[in-house]
Write a structure and sequence with these properties.
Elements (H helix, E strand, L loop, with lengths): L9 E3 L3 E3 L23 H25 L8 H30 L5 H13 L5 H24 L9 H16 L3 H9 L5 H33 L4 H12 L5 H4 L1 H6 L13 H18 L12 H9 L1
Antiparallel strand pairs: 1-2
Length: 311
Amino acid sequence: MDQGQVSTIAASPENGPQRMHVRKFRQGRTRLAARHWVRGDMFATAFLNALSVVFPRGEAFMIEALHPWRDRTEGALQRDIATFIEQEAAHSREHVGFNRAIIEAGYDIEALDRAIKQFVSFFAGCGEITKLGATMCIEHLTAIVAAEILKNREHLEGTDLELRKLWLWHAIEEVEHKAVAFDVWMFATREWSGARRWLTRSALLLAVSLSFFVNRTRGQVELLRQDGLSKPAGWWQSIRHGFAKGAIGRNVLGPWFEFFRPGFHPHTIDDRELLVRGENLLAAIKLVTEGTTAGADRTSSASRNLAAEVA
C-alpha cells in the first residue's frame, strides 16, 4: 500500500470490508481465580499483569493524542477516530477493574504505575505530531501482541473464562483499530516527503519499543520479586520465557520488523481471519458464561463447537 494512501477499514474474509464498531462489554467486579491466574504460570501471569497495569494511563495518553485530530479530519477517518476513542476508553475502564484485582491478589503495582506515569510525562511537552507518532508506535506493539493472542489460543488456555473474555475482547478491538493512529499520522504528515516519514516513524518505533521492552520487563521482574524471585532471576526468566519457542516475544518479532518496510501499512498484515476467529471464540465463551451468542458468526456452527471445547 502506498504511504499516501489511507485505509481505515477492518475486514471480514467472508463478508468483505466492515467498519469498526464498539462492542458492549462490562466485566463487573473482576476477581482473579488464583494469584497466578494464567494456568498457574507465574511468568505468563506476570507478563499479562504488567501489561494490564499500564493500560489505563496508556490508553488515556493515546486518546489525548488522537482527540485533536477528530475535528481536523472528515468522513471515514473522522468516524474511526471517534470509534477508536470510545474503544480505548472502555479498555481503560475495564483494566482499572482488572488492576484492582491484581492488588487484591497481593501485588503492589505502584512501581509499575510510576513507570507509565514517567513515560506519559516525557511526552507532555512534545508537539501533537510527536504524540501522535508515539501513539502510532504503541498501537503497532499492542496490535501485534493482540494478534498473537488471537492466533495462538494456548496463550490464554486454562484461564478463568471471565478473565479470558476480557483479554479476548481487548485483543479483538486492538487488532480491529490497529490502523487508525497510523492513518491519522499519515494525514498529519501528508506534506512530508516519504523519506522523512519513514525515518521519523522508524526512529520513533525503535525508541518506543526500547521503552516498552525495558519497562514492561522491569514490571514483570518487580511482580516476580513479590513472588519470591531475585531480580537477576526475574530478568533471566522473563526473557527466557518471553522469547522461548512459541512464546509471544519471539512470535511478534516478524510483525514488529514489518513496520520498518518502506510503504508499510498496518493492514498489509492481514489479520481479518484472526478477527473472525476471535469473535467466534469470544461468542463461544459468552455462550458458556452468559447463555448468549452475541457477536458470533451466525452463518456457521463455529461458536457452538468452540463453546463445547471451552465449557
